[in-house]
Write a structure and sequence with these properties.
The chain crosses the membrane at residues 6-28, 40-60, 66-85, 90-109, 121-142, 154-175, 195-218. The protein is mainly alpha-helical and 224 residues long. It has helices at residues 8-28, 32-47, 49-56, 64-67, 72-86, 89-108, 119-140, 152-175, 200-217. It has one domain (8-220).
Length: 224
């Protein structure tokens, strides 16, 4: 069954996914034992997403874009998994900003053509919901906070994001891939369609990313 963005299957999937996220967060906040269970579960889902992707795409026409874990959300899943296990500040910071600013956008405009009950569909949404769950879980349950002053962490993540996009462009040039959608927009409708033609949309993407990072830091701004 093909996947149709903005159709009933899409909205039902979003509703189920965000309801599960809310349930996990509420469950984790009830006790330290519950917190340990949810932390382990989310870390497992994030770190297992790449092996699951290799399994899910067996039997389907694949390209290097589906095989190499170099999309931003692939890296975000790995970062989120280790962030939950190690509590390293930079990993927690990247998970929060990447998970909400980028992965939420991927859920709203999915770059996938296979619908339910196919394994690629299941993998895509499990991976992306796990990242978003981790991004919300970190400040709500683990009480992570960005660095002071409030704009410091957004700028650090923005700098790392720029390096990632430069890397993705180099890889795309060498392998004829489209990681980070930095070589062309995705086939499915997305926000990139409204940011201009290539390469202008690359600069618009970075400007939008910085704006989102700053907005996501505002709730943690310390009042003088």
């Amino acid at each position: 069954m093909p996947f149709h963005p903005f159709g009933s299957q899409h909205f039902i999937t979003l509703g189920i996914g965000f309801a599960i996220i809310a349930g996990l967060i509420l469950f984790a906040k009830r006790s330290e034992r519950n917190q340990g269970i949810v932390t382990a579960l989310l870390a497992f889902l994030c770190l297992a997403s790449y092996p699951f992707a290799l399994f899910a795409w067996r039997g389907y026409p694949v390209s290097l874009d589906n095989v190499l874990p170099l999309h931003l959300c692939d890296l975000a899943a790995i970062v989120a998994g280790f962030a939950l296990l190690t509590k390293k500040p930079i990993l927690l910071t990247l998970t929060y900003f990447w998970g909400i600013a980028a992965t939420t956008q991927a859920l709203l405009t999915p770059a996938i053509s296979h619908g339910p009950p196919s394994l690629p569909f299941i993998h895509f949404f499990v991976q992306h919901f796990a990242i978003v769950a981790a991004a919300l879980y970190i400040p709500i349950v683990l009480k992570w906070r960005p660095k002071a002053p409030w704009w410091r962490s957004p700028l650090e993540v923005f700098g790392i994001s720029i390096l990632y996009h430069v890397f993705s462009l180099a890889v795309n040039t060498l392998l004829e891939t489209n990681f980070a959608f930095s070589s062309r927009p995705p086939d499915n409708p997305s926000l990139i369609d409204h940011l201009g033609a290539w390469p202008l949309y690359l600069f618009a993407m970075q400007g939008l990313a910085l704006l989102l990072y700053l907005l996501l830091a505002l709730p943690f701004r310390r009042r003088a």
